[in-house]
Specification:
single chain; about 375 residues; Rossmann fold; globular; binds 1,4-dihydronicotinamide adenine dinucleotide
Length: about 375
Amino acid sequence: MLHAIDTRQLRLPAPETTLSLSDITARAATLGAYDGHERVWLGRDEARGLTAIVAVHSTALGPALGGTRIWPHPSFEAALTDALRLSRGMTDKAAVAGLPLGGGKAVIMADPRRDKTPDLLEAYAEMLTALAGQYYTAEDVGMTLADADFLGERAPNVAGTTRGSSGDPSPFTARGVFLGLKEAMRRRCGSPELEGVTVAVQGLGSVGWTLADALHGEGARLIVADLDRSRAEKAATVFGAAVTEPDRIHAADADVYAPCALGGVLSASTIPEIRATIVAGAANNQLATAEDAEHLAAHGILHAPDFVINAGGLINVAAEIFSGGYDGAAAMEKVACIPATLAAIFDRSEAEGRTPDAVARAIAAERVARG
Ligand code: NAI
């Protein structure tokens, strides 16, 4: 459904700023990744180097929440597609986790190592302020806790900052992925024990590194890859990990493949090369296409749907937004429910002969429809 711009809900940028804000929902609706998104906004500020897209997929269960990704997408269409897919995934993630939140996501087209200037973040904070009431943001790839703090000092709708609130969501995400991975081990191998099990971890950023640390702590052998070679080499030193190339990690001789970098890594070209029998990782949108869930099953690979096991960060941020006072221990207790959610999805998947991904999406759709 397309909406006209409702300026009553918008705090339009102050006249002295150079930020321009436009509703690009109609343009987004021409792309294949569009799935009835409620609203898509483009914020542009050439002087300060900002091109940002905020996509709100659904507010049926609550206000839209999702992190901001800062990434040098090769084209505007690629960035818009990413924002549409990621925000769609946030709707499913919140619904399956039982949270009163909708799905949203933001993408800033910029190289986080080169272009992430205070000016750019200032302009983005103005965009966020204009969208307050419609969209909450938090961290995603390319954004640090310091960036979240910077934005949180300037805009009211930033969660996951250090200012007396939930802080970095990554440890919560990593914990949920770790527990979900072990639940998938239990299902596939009859035991969640990690001693001697080989796990291939792709991406050693905030989540991947913490996950690798936890896996190493329980005796898993690690094979790792990161575009930033120094991170992989550090893992070799700290965890005794074997290092491989980022474009070959999916084919590593491992029991479990844990994608913790970017999405689209489970595709027609990679799936036949995967030697692991379990895929369980943090990366959002791991499946290149919905049909790739079937391809994984046909290759005998058990996939823990990403939006089910990587919900820990969202659960933590929700604890900040909805509780009177943020309680990290209570949030961690909720994260500990992720394996039970996953086990129920695996049960239904086996009973109905559908992939875990299809079952998890059906559960989300049922909850969104109930409202
Ligand atoms: P991050 O930006 O801290 O780390 C990403 C890492 O992946 C970086 O070290 C980067 O160099 C590496 N990388 C990028 N492309 C790669 C490739 N092709 N091969 C190998 N390494 C590559 O990001 P973070 O926060 O750790 O997130 C990782 C994934 O988990 C993302 O897909 C994110 O959307 C997802 N996620 C993160 C959450 C969080 O709480 N941080 C919550 C839910 C999902």
